[in-house]
């Protein structure tokens, strides 16, 4: 259980999934099926988009921008301020990492999309 808590936000994800299941139960009681399915699907898509944004924020996309020689800068100053290509390459070649937020958003998104598909079947 402790390992699961380290990987994603267990209590928050569980509470949000319970809200989704309550919406499915409300659907069974008699609330509009298409409306609840659309809401669950859109919330699932938003959660997956948040996961993608979280991954891209940690991807080091802006690492290693080329610095041009400034006006009046000597060659020695330019060489000292120059970017080390090997460091930038090692940063950019790191594997993709999921944070706890990204994993939690993925679980919520997939759960809500599956629930919306189950409702409409």
Write the layout of secondary structure elements.
Blueprint: H1 2-7, H2 10-29, H3 33-57, H4 75-81, H5 85-92, H6 100-120
Helix pairs in contact: 2-6, 3-6
Q: What this model shows, in words?
A:
- This protein is mostly helical and 121 residues long.
- Helix content is 72%, strand content 0%.
- The protein contains 6 helices and no strands.
- It has helices spanning 2-7, 10-29, 33-57, 75-81, 85-92, 100-120.
- Helix 3 (33-57) packs antiparallel against helix 6 (100-120).
- The longest helix has 25 residues, at 33-57.
- The chain is elongated.
How many strands, what sense, and barrel or not for the largest sheet?
none
Shape: elongated
**Secondary structure: number of strands:** 0
Give me the strand/helix succession.
Answer: HHHHHH
Question: What class, by secondary structure content?
Answer: mainly alpha
User: What portion of the residues fall into strands of 2 or more residues?
Assistant: under 5%
Number of H/I helices: 6
Intertermini distance: 34 Å
Quick synopsis:
By secondary structure, the protein is mainly α.
List key phrases describing it.
mainly alpha; single chain; 121 residues; elongated
């Amino acid at each position: 259980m402790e390992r699961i808590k380290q990987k994603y936000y267990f209590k928050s994800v569980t509470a949000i999934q319970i809200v989704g299941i309550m919406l499915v139960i409300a659907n069974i009681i008699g609330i509009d099926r298409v409306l609840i399915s659309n809401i669950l699907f859109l919330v699932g898509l938003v959660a997956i988009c948040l996961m993608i944004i979280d991954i891209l924020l940690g991807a080091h996309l802006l690492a290693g921008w080329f610095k041009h020689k400034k006006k009046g800068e000597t060659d020695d100053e330019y060489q000292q301020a120059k970017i080390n290509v090997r460091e930038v390459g090692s940063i950019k070649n790191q594997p993709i990492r999921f944070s706890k937020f990204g994993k939690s958003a993925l679980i919520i998104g997939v759960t809500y999309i599956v629930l919306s598909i189950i409702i409409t079947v």
